[in-house]
User: Fold this.
Amino acid sequence: MSLASTLPVGQDYAFAYGRMATLRQLILAESDVYRLVGCHDMNELERILTELRLTSVIDQSITQAGLVLEALEHWLKAEVEDMVDSTQEKVFHIVWMENDGAQMAYAIKQKRGLTSNVSRKPQSTVYVIHPEDLQRLIETDEAGTLPPTLVTCVRGLLKADSLSPKEIDRAVAQSYCEMRLQLAKASGSADILRLVRHSIDAQNIRTALRIPHDEAKSIELYCFKGGTIDPRNLDSLEGIRSSIAQSDLHYHLLPALDHLEDRNVLESGLQKVFTEDIEDMWQKVLTVEAPFAFAATVFHQLRVLRAIVIGKRNGLSPQEIRQILPPFLGGSLFQH
Assistant:
């Protein structure tokens, strides 16, 4: 039982807010990312990792970069679950399930003989769908307590006559979009629902801007359902511009359409959208939104750290690593 669950209604989130006043001091600043990207090798990277305020919360004997990130994921999940009432824990599956999709897609491709000897199974220490439950569904068709949306997706992909790896990836991603939307709606939070829908919009806009011209008329086949923008209207640059202009994304994204030669301009605009969504949640002191904002921010920052570690392990230069990094999500309300 969490400490929050022993408090009267309202006070549980007041406890969470007070705890986050301390925890937000740990959140990465963009300068921390610059230091890590600019370091010379893995030894220096691991030394810097251990100096970050964020890593002060884990066992200080852990110094190997991969293990540090795993420990941080476990700490974050445990910290958040201790901050909120048990009835609200499920909404955080929206954050935790980010790693699940890759594992599910790999397992289905492996079952269908679409993996090779050099394929590597995605690894994750924080997940919503237990890998053993997923494997049981794939091997024996035993659904157990798995979400119906996921079960339907897996069964359909296993029965289909012919599928490419990309088609499997897309179908799995769509099922996870649907599950995240269901969780957001069930939470009763308009802010969390908006964040999830905006994340779908972002993926669809990226897809629409890079799809070959001769495939643009079938854009809805490549996009996900559930965003605030109808994917069918993203079949041309004019359609993309018009759709964004009529949406609540216009302020941050319309200027980016004039600089499509620089991918960073678009990503910077999307970063501002997500930062604004997160900041709105941070203001909801006595609800689940503030703990959710904290969890989403730190989990995203762990993705950034993981990308840096992968880049350094593969000998990429600082310039090359910057090209593969997700946009940094921080926000003034989390940085001091």
User: Anything to note?
Assistant: Residues 1-9 have pLDDT under 50 and may be disordered. Residues 1-84+288-336 form a domain with the Topoisomerase I; Chain A, domain 4 fold (CATH 1.10.132). The chain is about 60% helix and 0% strand. The first helix runs from residue 11 to 23.
